[in-house]
Amino acid sequence: MTIHVYAGLKNYFDTEFEVEEPVGNTDELKQVLIGMNVAAGELLSTCRFAVEEGFIDHTFKLKQHDTIVIIPPSSGG
User: Fold this and answer.
1) What domains lie within the chain, and their CATH numbers?
2) Is the pTM of this model over 0.85?
3) Are 19 and 49 in contact (CB under 8 A)?
4) Is the Cα dihedral 64, 3, 58, 54 positive or negative?
């Protein structure tokens, strides 16, 4: 699957990369990503995930061909 990350996650991962390991949901994906870079764990725990331009939760069933967007929390004014 293709992963796109934004904001602070770019300090831990390339902006776009592939995950070959099969994962079933966002909880499993987080564990794979933490395995790739343990320092990203705290930030990943607060992120939102999206597929097909819609936010998803941990019950959404991911497919290997999905493109997942991971968005950290942000603030501004």
Assistant:
1) 2-71 (3.10.20.30)
2) yes
3) no
4) negative
